[in-house]
Amino acid sequence: MITRRDLLKVAGVGAVALLAAPGAVRTSFGAEKKSIEDALKEHLGKGLSGLKESNLINIKAPTIAESGANVPVQVSANIPVDQVEALYIFADENFNPWVATVELTPMNGEVFFATRIKLAKTSPVRAVVKMKDGTLLAAAKEVKVTVGGCG
Amino acid sequence: MATIGRAVVRVPKSASKGEVVKIQMVITHPMETGLRKDKKTGQLIPAHYITKVEFLFNGKKVTTLHTGAGVSKNPYFAIKMKVTESGTLTIKYEDNKGGKWEKSAEINVS
Which positions fall inside the Sulphur oxidation protein SoxZ domain (chain B) (predicted)? Predict the structure, then answer.
């Protein structure tokens, strides 16, 4: 799903990155690294304070990742899937902390999703479960990265 | 270079009615963020990543994935699905450059 906003964002990021030296912090022209707060607001309409910590959500990810380019993440939740609308994955320190949105249906049988993600550096990996009643349940797991993956 | 968009899908060949099965797939794709530079030319490599993956079973929506460039190169995705009848799982996926692909697999339910 690409919106006009996304396209503009990509174009903006590209323009700034062309000017920046390799490895330099990209700060000018507003194309800064997006904060987790902004990313949450963009995708969920609420920031960190709108999330409810839940121990029903289980994130399986390594404590220390050898490479940030390929970090396995598995999310499952002990919540009936027919009460769930979607599952979100965020990585706080990434240039764009939003990683994926998973729209679930009762046909899934259970709340489960696994993938491999990039981590720019040591960062919490967050899973947010959006319930049909609008409640946002969340869990986080800190993953230590020795070599970043968003070069 | 490997063909972009080629996918390998793994589903159980057979399952019992009401069982929750795991569906796994790997797509061959560079997943470029648009922030990386080509080391030889110094030019920025344009963003190129999977944006959407749809899982349908017998035409009914099971899961829709929206992804950004934060997913690793050659993305791996796994979901679960409760099966009550035999049928075809169809996976449709696309990237930000207009690439569109489809892959399907049969599941026998007894």
Answer: 10-105
